[in-house]
Amino acid sequence: MIRRLLMSALIIAGLMTALLEGCGKDNGEEGLVKVRVGEVTRSLFYAPEYVAIAKDLFKEEGLQVELTTTFGGDKTMTALLTGGIDIALVGSETSIYVYQQGAEDTVINFAQLTQTDGTFLVSREAVDAFHWDQLQGSVFLGQRKGGMPQMAGEFTLKRHGIDPQKDLELIQNIEFANIPAAFASGTGDYVQLFEPQASIFEQEGKGQVVASFGVESGHLPYTVFMTKQSYIDANKETTQKFTNAIYKAQKWVEEHNAEEIADVVLPFFKDTDRAIAIKVIDRYKQQGSYASDPAVDEEEWNNLLDVMTTAGELTSRPAHEELVDNSFAEQAAD
C-alpha cells in the first residue's frame, strides 16, 4: 500500500517540478528562514524535536520551523515529494521505498532523531515472568504491513524462533489510530503499542508491558529528518543550521532528566498527564531510544536493511552513502 502511494507521489512530484523551480525561499517572521517540517505523528518519542522548538534552538540558528503532523509515512513522504513540506521526520524505510521506485530526486537522510523502535509488547493478562514462546498460538494485534513498527516486530519474533505467519494469529488490518481501541474492546491476547498508550493501559489495568521491540531489534535509523537532494543542493546553509539545532536539543535531552524534559514538551501534548509523560520519556531514555547525535552510522543502516529484508520489503540493499549524508551531523558535532 505504502509503495503504491509513493509511486503516485513520484508522478505528481514530477509534474510539479517545473512549477516549483525558481521559487525563492519563503522567509518567516523577523527575517528568519522558514522551514516547513512534516512529522509522521505527534509523539513523546520525538521529544528532542519539541525541545528544539520550545527552547528556541531553531531561532538561535536563524530558522522559523513550521511544524505539521502529517499522520502516516505515506502521507508524510507524499507531502515531501510534492513540495508541501521541506523536511520530513519519518522512518528511513520510506526513503528506501522512494529509491526503489526509481525517484530522480533522491530523498536523503541527514539527521537522525530516534535510534530504536518505539513500540512495546503489551499482554492482556498479567505476566510474572515473560518468555517469548508464550506468544505461540496467541492472537497478536500488530502494526501495519510495510511500516517499521511491523517490520521490527516481525524481526524480533523471528529472532525468538516464532514464525508470525504460522505460530500465531497475526492481525494487521486495523488502522494505526484504531489499534489501542481494538485491543481495549477485546481483540488480541497481545498488542504492539507505542507510548503513551502502553503506559496508559498499564495505569488503567488493561494490559502489561512485557517487552520492548526497541531493545530487541537493536539500533537502527528509526526516525530521521530527511529531504530531497534538490533541497539540500539549494539550501545547504539552512540544512546545516537545522541540524545544528537538532544536535543542541539532543544534548539537552541527554543531560536532563525525564521530569525536566516533560515540562518542556508538555505544551505539545495538551491531553497527556504529566506523570504518564515522565514515565514514557524515562522509558525511552533508559532504553536509549533518543539518538545522542544526528549521524546515521553504517552499522545502524545495515541493521535496518536486515530488518526490511527479513520482512520481504527490499528489492535491493541501497548502500549507506546513497541515501545518507552525515556531513551536516558531523559539522554540527564539531
UniProtKB/TrEMBL annotation:
Subcellular location: Periplasm
Presence of keyword Signal: yes
Gene3D superfamilies reported for this sequence: Periplasmic binding protein-like II (3.40.190.10)
Pfam family, one: NMT1_2
Keywords: Signal
Annotated signal sequence range: 1-20
Main location: periplasm
Family the UniProt entry places it in: Belongs to the bacterial solute-binding protein SsuA/TauA family.
PANTHER family hit by this protein: ALIPHATIC SULFONATES-BINDING PROTEIN-RELATED, TAURINE-BINDING PERIPLASMIC PROTEIN
Protein name as catalogued: NitT/TauT family transport system substrate-binding protein
Species annotation: Paenibacillus plantiphilus
